[in-house]
Amino acid sequence: MKIEVVPALELSLTDIDRWSSLQVGQARLDSPFLSPRWTQAVARARAATGKKAGEIKVAILRAEDGQAIGFLPARVRADVGMPVGAPMCDYQALVSAPGVAMDPRQLLTALHVHRLDFCHMQADDETLARHGRGQTESWIVEIPDGYAAYEAGRRAAGSGVLKDIDKKRRKVEREVGPAVFTAMSESRADFDQLIAWKRAQLIATGQTDYFRTPWVMDLVNALFATRDPVFGGGLYTLHLGGKLAAVHLHLRGAHTVHGWLIAHNAALERYSPGLMLFQDILRSMDGTPYDRLDLGAGDYRFKRELSNAQQTVVFGFLGSPSPATFVRQAAYGVRHMAESLPLGRMSELPGKAMRRLDLLRGLH
Fold first, then answer.
1. DSSP bridge partners of 233
2. Which residues pair with 74 in a beta bridge?
3. 3-class SS at 160?
């Protein structure tokens, strides 16, 4: 078997179709972030804003007969590979048939890099997951039998979150006005309010405002407008008493809705409008092709209480002997040493610094 590397925007229609077909039947690969359309959307957004589209490449594993049996996208800059679309990308994985893997060293050679970083590599990945330096969980709501069965399952598991949301919904409708949910909204005003709320949230919490980066805004705008049945954005809104209370822009795969950008009206926060909107989204999935709502990584209470499944993801890197690999090894060494010491919040600083630097590298 050999590995061929091609620019993302030069993928043949045959390879795009083959990539998509390999996602079918494997729930963990159904993520929109693992779609060829995500990789190409990022490449187009970067090209449209003056970045080098050719940095976005796809490593294709081919069998002896030339058929593609595995796809792994990467953004290649200098001698380092990074996840495509980071920091906006919540999953990475080799998209392949079960049991198929790439030789990691051949992968580095084919991409012409000395190091390949990843931040949300699926732990099931047979090519890169074993090179992880740490792990976390992504929280998933699976509803193959519909909302009513899911609700009964959460109740049987001892979770009262849905009952609490129902109580708050009745309360807000008495005190504020009727709740109106809209799926796949085309409201530009509500979309713009989402971005404004997210930017304010990032600034207030001292985080990087990634919406200042032109390619990020171009990507988000393009996905908001994409109505492809197996890939694109989905704007979901909740109005209370005629006021926008919560708004989400999620990504859609063939059967998965992935939580992406979420925000709510702070003036209505006591009613938990964001949770109400998640509940409405789950209810709206009945009778549609969607049977999974992926809430992504992050150990938040609402994710733990809503979810009934998990996907482990790992962060780390694959490297060959080189200065780039040495620097990364040293950074992880400092991080692990700090995290092993009883220094309270000080122990978290090296990890936070690495994540901030990786975010800035991804945005550049």
1. 251
2. 57
3. coil
